[in-house]
Amino acid sequence: MFILGLSNPVGDADYFLTQLFHSDNQGEAGNRSFYENKEVDKLLEAGRQDIDPDKRQEYYNEVQEILIEEAPMFYVHHQAYLTGVSDKIEGYRINSSGYYMLQHVKFVDKPS
Predict the structure, then answer these.
(1) What are the Cα distances from residue 8, in Å, to 24, 50, 79, 89, 105?
(2) How does pLDDT run across 64-84, given as a tens digit for each residue?
(3) What is the largest CA-CA distance in the chain?
(4) I want to staple 59 with a disulfide (CB 3.0 to 4.6 A). Which of 20, 47, 64, 97 is the partner?
């Protein structure tokens, strides 16, 4: 049994799916559940090599469907990021990895 916390700083499905579920990564390399499925390996390799974003999406969707069916891990928690921002702030956002994007933030003077 283990506890895993992982985010995706690059926004690409391959970043964590291959690390966690490809049979070549069993053990300390990331696949700590020692999950093995030749079809998942094949789909992950295809997704990693294809440059067509729509095809890649299809590969990773199929991987996720298999993972839902086979459930090699028990997912007990997913953090929700709640943030309050004043109307006097513009340009603030949180990206898909949960990182605060502050490079375009500016204070604006709005009438009350």
Answers:
(1) 20, 20, 13, 26, 23
(2) 999 999 999 887 776 677 788
(3) 61
(4) 47
Q: Are 7 and 50 spatial neighbours (Cβ–Cβ below 8 Å)?
A: no
SS3 42: helix
Looking at the chain, the number of H-run helices and the number of E-run strands are 3, 4
46-83 burial string, b = 16+ CB within 10 Å, else e? Answer: bbbeeeeeeebeebbebbeeebeeeeeeeeeeeeeeee
* 30 burial type by CB count under 10 A (0-12 exposed, 13-18 middle, 19+ buried): middle
Find out whether 36 and 66 touch, Cβ atoms under 8 Å: no
Is residue 74 within 8 A of residue 33, CB to CB? The reply is no
Percentage of the chain modeled with pLDDT above 70: 92
Q: Is the overall model pTM greater than 0.85, yes or no?
A: no
Stated length of the chain = 112
